[in-house]
Automatic annotation (TrEMBL):
Keywords: Amino-acid biosynthesis, Cytoplasm, NADP, Oxidoreductase, Proline biosynthesis
Enzyme Commission designation: 1.5.1.2
Pfam families listed in its UniProt record: F420_oxidored, P5CR_dimer
Transmembrane segments: none
Organism: Mucilaginibacter angelicae
Main subcellular location: cytoplasm
Role summary: Catalyzes the reduction of 1-pyrroline-5-carboxylate (PCA) to L-proline.
Pathway listed: Amino-acid biosynthesis; L-proline biosynthesis; L-proline from L-glutamate 5-semialdehyde: step 1/1
Subcellular location: Cytoplasm
Protein's UniProt name: Pyrroline-5-carboxylate reductase
Ranges of residues in domain Pyrroline-5-carboxylate reductase catalytic N-terminal: 7-100
The family this protein is said to belong to: Belongs to the pyrroline-5-carboxylate reductase family.
Amino acid sequence: MNSQQHISILGSGNIGLSLAKGLVKSGICKPQQISLTRRNVAALAEYATLGYHVSDNNIRAVRKADIIVLAVLPQQLNKLLDEIRPALKPEKQLLISVISGVSCGDIRQQLDLNVQIVRAMPNTAIAIGHSMTCIATDNGTNKNINMAKSLFDTVGVTIQINEELMTSATALCACGIAFFLRSIRAASQGGTEIGFHAHDALKMAAQTAKGAADLLLQLSSHPEQEIDKVTSPSGCTIAGLNEMEHHGFSSAMIKGIRLSAEKAGDLYKKDS
Ligand SMILES: NC(=O)C1=CN([C@@H]2O[C@H](COP(=O)(O)OP(=O)(O)OC[C@H]3O[C@@H](n4cnc5c(N)ncnc54)[C@H](OP(=O)(O)O)[C@@H]3O)[C@@H](O)[C@H]2O)C=CC1
Ligand SMILES: O=C(O)[C@@H]1CCC=N1
């Protein structure tokens, strides 16, 4: 992104704001290059003081944008697309959608315009530059895919996948943040029960989770390989781990991810 380009985020809620903060934190653009919209614009007041353009006027935001990010809920999308259609300049602008369960084809059909669309599925860790973002398109040029990838590369790790896997990516990576957070919270509750103050237990659980993830990422090793190093014969780790498995630990995670993926695929069609 160069210093003349402008990005408009339509639907500045959880993920839209996380993206904006991540882009600014990475230094790829300044707040002045980002427009944030939502209907309840008063909720964006603090962002106006930081230099972002803040508005409830989607048309104006679209007119000045080189890149338009769609970040409303699936059930809010069609109304938004109908509103911005007259202001779009398909040959000059790139549309990036982070909306779950809505394909590039769905968006083009609703717009009735041959616009270039790249889908991106980040997670909320984008706000601190640690997102796992999956990117897909069905008609984006390499230039536009690279543009989208270069944006999301600044706020985490990005991979390009086939569009048909985007609902799966939603469950594993976007919803996945919540699954791992709940695991850490549960670990901290266990820690409190065995003697630690809650704030210490949470810090200890979170750092331990970070260490586990980094072992896999930095050493490129398999979880079971690392688990084998922890589980001493007749020891306390295997006792705890087996007890968790008897209660369905892995099964619960797998079944939850499957249900999330199913639901992600249904979000748009059922509710819009
Ligand atoms: N949260 C997450 O972790 C992730 C979410 N996603 C996807 O991102 C999208 C947004 O999710 P999330 O940020 O959690 O949802 P939020 O509800 O937090 O954000 C949606 C925002 O859109 C605004 N909005 C609704 N209608 C309009 C409109 N017509 N014009 C402008 N703004 C509008 C809403 O504000 P107001 O009511 O004031 O207009 C709200 O702030 C969803 O499609 C979700 O599937 C993708 C990856 C991760
Ligand atoms: O829960 C949801 O529907 C959204 C999509 C991915 C994360 N949050």
